[in-house]
Amino acid sequence: MIRETVTSFDPGWGELIDLDVLDSGDWAGVFRDGPNLFVRTATSKSVAPDGIRFPIIRCLEPGRIALVDTRTLEGRTNAWLLCPQRNEIVEFFAGDGIQDVLAKSDTIVVT
After folding, report:
1. To the nearest 10°, the Cα dihedral for 84, 85, 91, 97?
2. Distance between CA 66 and CA 110 in Å, rounded?
3. Considering only CA atoms, which of 91, 87, 63, 70 is closest in space to residue 79?
4. What's the rounded Cα separation, in Å, for the pair 111 and 84?
5. Domain ranges of the chain
6. Which residues are CB-neighbours of 70 under 8 A, at least 6 positions away?
7. Model confidence pLDDT, tens digit, residues 24-39
8. Between 23 and 54, where is the model more confident?
9. Nearest to 57 by CA among 86, 84, 76
10. In terms of Cα–Cα distance, which of 72, 66, 67 is closest to 96?
């Protein structure tokens, strides 16, 4: 069964760059407001890590997000696991020239 939910984003949040939604309806998005990127959920807003140029965001589970920059420079971290509610960040290198990111609560696949 397909469930339909309408969510309106405030134009003041900036340009929507990427968005992901879980079956539960929980969502996370990356917004650009001027030179800054922000990660937003229905209940939180946080500044994205510095230097991200081409972001992909994926919901792992409610309150847990994967954020990946598809391009990076040698040796630069370009992937983060975020828990905005707890202000937790884990960072790692995911590779360069990333095409897509698939995610579930316990798995992240980078192509």
Report:
1. -30
2. 11
3. 91
4. 25
5. 13-110
6. 54, 55, 56, 78, 97, 98, 99
7. 889 999 999 999 999 9
8. 54
9. 84
10. 72
